[in-house]
Specification:
eight-stranded antiparallel beta sheet, 20 strands, five-stranded antiparallel beta sheet, 28% strand, alpha+beta, 370 residues
Length: 370
């Protein structure tokens, strides 16, 4: 147990002082902490690396630092990963066997338990669904007891904790599905005319990994898709203007140089008021275009990013996404000289209201005031 101090998450907007901070080293220690907190009528919130953006991993009750639960063991087609292990640590264990989780987040330094509690979307989610949809079973502490759940054992609990953000049980370990990993990949850049063209490319291009971005330009916004082909000898998709060949691990770890630069510039420590919504595919382009049409680069921040990703949810009911969803992510950074945090939060609220009006839903790892 550690002395309680004021804590923030990656969002840097909300601060809370937990009554207690505990770093359990086993599932039984998690269970003991949950039982003790329940007896005292205190909330318990698990925390991995605190990458939530509006206090979702913070509490005024008991904060469980899940980084004390580490370790990854690789078996036949699966990896048993502790909740506090990062996806970087998972890859370090699986790649020597020529295997990888089918879905990885763009940023590897997030915990397994954290992203499974959030859902977990990656560039391969158009093929494989979410990270939470690629779990064979979970070890969970529910009501102070360690239990195992899966699609056939306690299926209700299994569905509740995947994407449940820790509200229905604390994930302590996961059996992750694995697939063969390529040695090398070909990254292809495809310029797109507009948001509709972005979604067309994502539907039609046969790529193992594909994401799209909207980027500020002198004429407003320009769009591009990044299609990644696994293996050697693959032909770039039509419309490709640039290609880059990388090892699979270097591709998976592609954010590390950018993060190091953002840390050096001070941008990584700025507030990050992120807006993220699931849109129904038939209405997605219209919502994206209207949102961007009302935005300036100052509304996004100096290091802000706009991502567009059509995906499959993969049987994770807690995400509550519409059918055939598109994740539209306005990942704002409150940089000096740009829009203020309250202004960015208000813009996130407006985006969510617009999305709901078109049949969309919230991706609840975002920053939207209640």
């Amino acid at each position: 147990m550690r002395e309680a101090v004021g804590m923030r998450d990656f969002g840097g907007i909300v601060e809370r002082s937990p009554a207690r901070m505990i770093r359990p080293g086993s599932a039984s220690e998690v269970a003991g902490a949950v039982r003790e907190a329940a007896a005292q009528g205190v909330d318990v919130v698990p925390r991995g690396l605190g990458h939530s953006t509006y206090g979702q991993s913070l509490t005024s009750g008991v904060s469980l630092d899940m980084r004390g639960l580490t370790g990854v063991e690789v078996g036949a087609g699966q990896a048993a990963a502790a909740a506090g292990a990062t996806w970087r640590e998972v890859l370090a264990a699986t790649l020597p066997h020529g295997l990888t989780p089918p879905v990885l987040t763009d940023y590897l330094d997030l915990t397994v338990g954290g992203t499974l509690s959030a859902g977990g979307v990656g560039g391969t989610s158009h093929v494989h669904g979410t990270q939470a949809g690629n779990v064979a079973s979970l070890d969970v502490v529910m009501d102070g007891d360690p239990v195992t759940c899966s699609p056939t054992v306690r299926p209700g609990l299994f569905d509740a904790v995947r994407g449940g953000r820790g509200r229905h049980g604390v994930i302590t370990g996961a059996a992750l599905r694995l697939v063969p990993a390529p040695e090398r990949v070909l990254c292809c850049t495809i310029p797109c005319r507009d948001a509709e063209d972005v979604l067309r490319v994502q539907r039609e291009v046969r790529a193992d990994d594909v994401t799209s971005r909207a980027l500020p330009s002198d004429d407003g916004w320009r769009f591009e898709a990044k299609a990644v082909l696994y293996g050697d000898g693959r032909e770039p998709p039509p419309g490709t203007t640039e290609t880059e060949e990388l090892s699979f691990f270097d591709f998976c770890d592609r954010m590390r140089p950018d993060v190091e630069e953002l840390v050096a510039l001070g941008e990584w420590a700025r507030p990050h008021p992120w807006g993220m919504v699931f849109l129904p595919a038939p209405r997605a382009a219209a919502v994206i275009e209207s949102t961007l049409g009302a935005m300036t680069t100052g509304d996004l921040g100096l290091s802000g990013v706009i991502l567009i990703k059509a995906l499959r949810i993969g049987g994770v009911p807690m995400l509550g996404a519409p059918r055939d969803p598109v994740l539209f992510s306005v990942l704002r950074t409150a940089s000096p000289g740009c829009a203020s945090v309250p202004e960015m939060l208000a813009a996130n609220r407006a985006l969510l209201d617009r999305a709901r009006g078109e049949g969309g839903t919230r991706y609840a790892v975002d920053s939207v005031p209640g």
